[in-house]
Amino acid sequence: MSPADARTAIVDCSGVGPGGITRVLTQLVRYWPAGQRLELVAVPAGWDLPAGRSVDALVHSWQAHGRGRTITAAAAALRRVTGSHAPPATRLLSLSPSAAMLGSRLPVTTVVHDVAFKLWPQSVSRPVRLYRRASYALAIARSAHLICVSARTRHDLFGLYGVPAERSSVWHPGADFDVTPGQLPEPLAEVRRRGQRYLVVAGHAEHKGVELAIDAVTRDPRFVLAVLTGGQRVPRFAQAAAASPAAGRILFLDRLSDPDYVAVLAQAAALLMPSHVEGYGSPAVEALRLGTPTVISPDPALFEAAGGSAVRMDTWTGEALARALVAIDNCPARPAPVGRSWRDAIAHLAELVNERSATAPAGPG
Question: Is the pTM of this model over 0.85?
């Protein structure tokens, strides 16, 4: 079945939070094939329909305050919305495993970004870990098709859950930006005025390896380290920074707009991703496409995403990261041909959703 044959996609956004999955939602609405219709359930508060979209999009409901209320309300909304549609002309796409799919009366396709809660369980609290354990088990049992953002994640689903290859596909997100670079946050602008260079590291979750970046800049006095928190500061990272001899060269930045994020990446001496585990690693691809040298951990998903264009640490230690930093001055100052456009990525996602929805069984009535 081609995308033009299926007219409506219902998108469950109840598992979408701050960060990369929100970007997936925005780009999905912006680039979903014209002539089709999107109906969105449990959209994050504060999110707006993007301009320039060619698809007809309707928001049915917004996320409630708190996970429990969000899931309950989303399940009720899905029951109501999916009850008025029938496959194969309509299909349900869940952007992340969520218990809200219990409300669906249509077959479900679920995007799986990673299984970090199992591979690095210390990165989430016990209540979150228990919820994800339940929601992932439900998604794997109930989804007709699982879309993995990397071959690594697909491998993890097979190894941890026994998901056979015929039930899953690999889909890489896009990595381009359709915004004009904005302004550096004032702390980084001041760093540049002082003639210093700065490194950027994603730091909104414990598995991102920020403690290794702190260790590395302690060993290398050439750089200031900017930790991008996305508005979610990890106390352990703040404590490690405060106790570091390099404390005066470590900055924590709150959520950035897309234009300012592009400016920060483009002017950085390097992006660091010393992550203990990743599902894909979009920031690495984004930085490389902007021409910013990038250092990655030995994680296989990051190697897959970067396509051999990043400097790779040889082990998960601050010393290994410091050694890798020595190599960034020899990296070519030009964009690397990695990743793909969001337009192409969303076209591929639509193809995957439509192909599997054509023969998938309906959900419970």
Answer: yes
